[in-house]
UniProtKB/TrEMBL annotation:
Protein name in UniProt: SLC13 family permease
Keyword Transmembrane helix applies: yes
BP GO annotations: potassium ion transport
GO molecular function, one term: monoatomic cation transmembrane transporter activity
GO-annotated cellular components: plasma membrane
Domain named RCK C-terminal: residues: 235-319, 328-412
Matches recorded under InterPro entries: Cit_transptr-like_dom (IPR004680), DASS-Related_Transporters (IPR051679), RCK_C (IPR006037), RCK_C_sf (IPR036721)
Length: 620
């Protein structure tokens, strides 16, 4: 178990792999991938496509021909992940996850520890059978409401929600796309290492349970002390976003050229920096007014702009600044008239990379943009034209009947629950039965998980849980393209001998360390790499290296594969390592360091627990 690596150094030195030109070229492609993932100069799916192109163009060195280059799209792992995302979408349409969260919230009350227990208990087990990305998306408004009703800062609960879902994803094979991909890579390497094979449904559930229990105890009893209250309980959105400095009321004066005109005319007269977010006509407020909304004498326009533009409102033709020249506003926050909420830009949103145009946003979403947090920081001045990214949070106001429609869109995650949610609750029993059947068929090995999951997709449509046109909306296509791009990269790394050479370097640098420490170092290396590139990319790149290193020191390759797999799904050090961390970034008001403050001790704790668990259950 604790066999020193030095005992085997003589053997590994004699079998040093040759560093070929082919391997060097593949290393260059890997370096390109890491840089692109790290800098995010291109969207993740575009980067994946670029990798395919580069690998095929460099075929004389990479060995990746066009057929192999696109093989990731037909790979069993890719299709299985696609099917599981659709099944998760079916469950979400029934409102089942939200109902579980609400029942736990009733139990929690105003006790922080009970709230944390409810958050962990509602998200971890569910994430073992549904993709944890949509689970967190669905639970963000539920957990936020739990915090507000209990007088707790949402900042205390939202990072634990993300971390608990990640840990829950390690309970079963289908808990996360990383597990499915790792299983596929392990099966492919089985021809070289007899110990490796495709994972069964509950292959590592006992280790996953250990991780969930230990991690949950940390989050409930210790972690919350390390999280500051970035967002006050029942936060006043107007105050949190400093809207008093950027909202003003202007009235249409008698004889104004805007009398008989429209909001479009007012926007043109005021300039592109000014956005009309409300119109008050005869005491009635119009929230997120359309451009064609007619204006009359005495109407009051509530506008959102920047400090410089507010100063120009006093001189606007046909308009008069209402009240004090100092920009303070009478923006209505009555939920009966217009609900204030935050919208988080989701992973596969069409808004990613687009510049914010409040006028276009209002027309498409029927919601007025009042504020913006980008990468956790408040954008106080100019928001018009700001390029949006995953995890950016928009403060919007929308009519009550619009919030449910927003909640059902894939572009955004609504940070509070709709007042009248439109779920297919009557389809919940059918959805649950389908998921149980999918898991049972795969667990009993009657058919592979790919076949049972695809059959489950068909069943979801036949039973009416999902409409046929909703199948495509349920898929996070950037994940599918990412898998398709990194799979041939992993093949190139193996076929050119690059993985074997990296493994040899690891063995040589390990020196006199015990095998268990080398196993722990692979866990740490994977966890750190996952913080800067995709968790799926980490698995594809490091599993072949880990397996080769294990074989080189006479250890159990399966133990090393499990260490990499678990570490790739525990990205706790920052908001960008895992998509669920981004989803809670804005609603929790977090800063980058908050993740490290609570995540670093958890990462270290779970690294020890996981490695010791692997040694105990499977040996090294």
């Amino acid at each position: 178990m604790f066999l020193p690596v030095c005992v085997l150094l003589a053997q590994t030195t004699a079998t040093r792999p040759e560093l070929t030109t082919d391997a060097l070229v593949v290393f260059g492609v890997v370096a390109l991938a890491v840089v692109l993932f790290l800098t995010e100069r291109l969207p993740i799916d575009v980067t994946a496509i670029l990798l395919i192109v580069v690998l095929v163009v460099l075929e004389p060195w990479t060995g990746i021909d066009p057929v192999t280059g696109i093989s990731g799209f037909a790979n069993e792992a890719t299709i299985t992940v696609l099917a599981m995302l659709i099944l998760s979408g079916g469950i979400s349409r029934t409102g089942l996850v939200q109902e579980v969260g609400r029942r736990m919230a009733t139990f929690a009350g105003d006790s922080l520890r009970k709230q944390l227990f409810a958050t962990v208990a509602a998200s971890s087990p569910v994430s073992g059978f549904l993709n944890n990305t949509p689970v967190v998306a669905l639970m963000v408004p539920v957990v936020t409401d739990v915090a507000n009703r209990g007088g707790t800062s949402p900042s205390k609960l939202l990072i634990p929600l993300s971390y608990a879902s990640q840990m829950g994803g390690m309970l079963t094979l289908i808990g996360t796309s990383t597990n499915i991909l790792a299983s596929d890579v392990s099966a492919r390497l089985g021809t070289q290492y007899p110990e490796l094979h495709r994972f069964s449904m509950f292959e590592f559930t006992r280790l996953g349970l250990l991780v969930v229990v230990v991690g949950s105890l940390y989050l409930i009893f210790a972690g919350h002390y390390l999280l500051p209250e970035r967002v006050p309980p029942r936060a006043d959105y107007l105050e949190a976003y400093d809207l008093g400095d950027y909202i003003a009321d202007v009235a249409v004066v008698p004889g104004s050229p805007l009398v008989g005109g429209t909001v479009r005319d007012a926007t043109a007269a005021l300039g592109s920096e000014v956005d009309v977010v409300q119109v008050i006509h005869d005491g009635t407020r119009s929230i997120a007014p359309r451009q064609a909304t007619a204006l009359g004498e005495g109407d009051v326009l509530v506008v959102r702009t920047n400090r410089d533009a507010i100063a120009t409102l006093e001189g606007a033709t046909g308009l008069e600044l209402v009240g004090s020249p100092k920009p303070t506003a009478t923006l209505s926050t009555d939920d009966e008239m217009g609900i204030l909420t935050e919208l988080v830009v989701s992973l596969d949103s069409r808004l990613v990379g687009e510049r914010l145009d409040p006028e276009q946003f209002r027309e498409e979403f029927n919601a007025a943009v009042l504020g913006l947090r980008s990468h956790g920081e408040l954008v106080a001045e100019r928001i018009v034209g700001k390029r949006l990214d995953v995890g950016d949070t928009l403060l919007v106001q929308a009519p009550p009947d619009t919030l449910d429609r927003l909640a059902r869109r894939d572009d955004v995650i609504v940070a509070r629950e709709p007042p009248r949610p439109d779920y297919r609750a009557d389809k919940a029993p059918a959805a649950v039965a389908i998921m149980i059947a999918v898991v049972a068929v795969a667990a009993l090995e009657l058919y592979p998980i790919l076949i049972s999951a695809l059959a489950g997709v068909v069943a979801m449509v036949v039973t009416g849980v999902l409409e046929p046109n909703e199948l495509y909306d349920a898929v996070e296509w950037d994940i599918i393209f990412l898998l398709a791009g990194v799979i041939p990269l992993g093949i190139a790394l193996e076929e050119t001998g690059g993985a074997a050479y990296l493994a040899w370097m690891v063995v040589q640098s390990a020196g006199f360390l015990p095998t268990i420490v080398v196993l722990w170092l692979f866990y740490i290396l994977t966890g750190l790499l996952t913080e800067v590139i995709s968790n799926n990319a980490s698995v594809v790149l490091l599993i072949p290296v880990a397996a080769a290193a294990a074989a080189g020191i006479g250890s159990n390759p399966f133990a090393f594969v499990l260490a990499v797999t678990f570490a790739a799904s525990t990205a706790f050090l920052g908001p960008i390592g895992y998509q669920t961390n981004l989803f809670v970034y804005g609603p929790g008001g977090y800063r980058f360091g908050d993740y490290f403050r609570i995540g670093a001790p958890l990462q270290l704790l779970l690294s020890i627990v996981t490695v010791l668990g692997i040694v105990f259950f499977w040996g090294v």
